[in-house]
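thought: user wants a sequence for this fold. calling inverse folding tool.
action: design(structure=
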């Protein structure tokens, strides 16, 4: 089995300081009904380990306070909004209690798998980052991101990690060139289509093939999507030089290449 190792760049979400939230009373009954419905959804999902995650390092929210209530509502909204198209974004609350978030599913996964991944991500991120006002979690099939800052339409260059195949190719120079050629072509295709997603393949030596994927979160403009993908491609020599497979995964876009088919319908 091909193994991947994450390169932990240890960069957390950068956020502006905000006043501490004060406790306020609200309906226990309404909260109970909401949490009960969401828990029932979570029970249908089989646990899968995330690829990686980041938690905000400084700002925390108060347990059972307004921010947590808004975060719960946002998670429920993204669960419903994202699967039909593979992407959803929204904001809940006002002022210091506002939570902004998005969910993105890989372009080839079904609505059901998208929904399952978002549900898993929603419950897992609360365990990994229990009181953090901002967090990101990545799975093979989806990304979930939220923050008290409005990040929509801004390229996230800070939150990024790498994965690479432990096996080296026997012809690294030409292989690296082919990898850049394929991913650059897919970046060019991806940023101009509505889903901001592209996949493709390229012939290699000895009847082998190279498979690639590029994808952006759809809150970005097409030009910012292209910038994000180009920047990710430029990182390949730092993580994946001469490797049989690799990924550069960020909060706004990701790229991947392999020497085997890795899409659901491959």
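)
observation: tool returned 266 residues.
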């Amino acid at each position: 089995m091909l193994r991947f190792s994450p390169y932990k760049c240890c960069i957390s979400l950068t956020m502006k300081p905000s006043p501490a939230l004060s406790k306020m009373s609200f309906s226990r009954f309404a909260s109970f009904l909401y949490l009960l419905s969401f828990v029932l959804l979570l029970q249908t999902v089989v646990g899968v380990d995330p690829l990686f995650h980041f938690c905000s390092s400084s700002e925390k929210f108060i347990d059972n306070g307004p921010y947590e209530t808004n975060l719960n509502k946002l998670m429920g909204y993204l669960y419903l909004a994202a699967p039909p198209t593979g992407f959803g974004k929204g904001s809940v609350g006002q002022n210091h209690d506002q939570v902004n978030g998005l969910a993105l599913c890989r372009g080839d996964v079904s609505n059901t798998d998208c929904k399952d991944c978002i549900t898993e991500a929603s419950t897992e991120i609360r365990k990994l980052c229990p009181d953090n006002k901002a967090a990101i979690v990545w799975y093979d099939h989806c990304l979930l991101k939220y923050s008290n800052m409005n990040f929509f339409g801004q390229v996230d260059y800070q939150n990024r990690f790498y994965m690479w195949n432990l096996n080296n190719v026997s012809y690294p120079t030409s292989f690296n060139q082919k990898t850049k050629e394929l991913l650059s072509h897919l970046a060019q295709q991806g940023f101009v289509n509505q889903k901001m997603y592209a996949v493709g393949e390229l012939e290699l030596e000895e009847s082998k093939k190279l498979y690639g994927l590029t994808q952006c979160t759809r809150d970005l403009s097409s030009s910012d999507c292209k910038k994000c993908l180009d920047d990710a491609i430029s990182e390949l020599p730092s993580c994946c030089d001469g490797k049989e497979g690799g990924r550069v995964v960020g909060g706004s876009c990701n790229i991947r290449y392999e020497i085997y088919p890795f899409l659901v319908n491959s």
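thought: summarizing for user.
answer: Here is the designed sequence. The first helix runs from residue 28 to 42.
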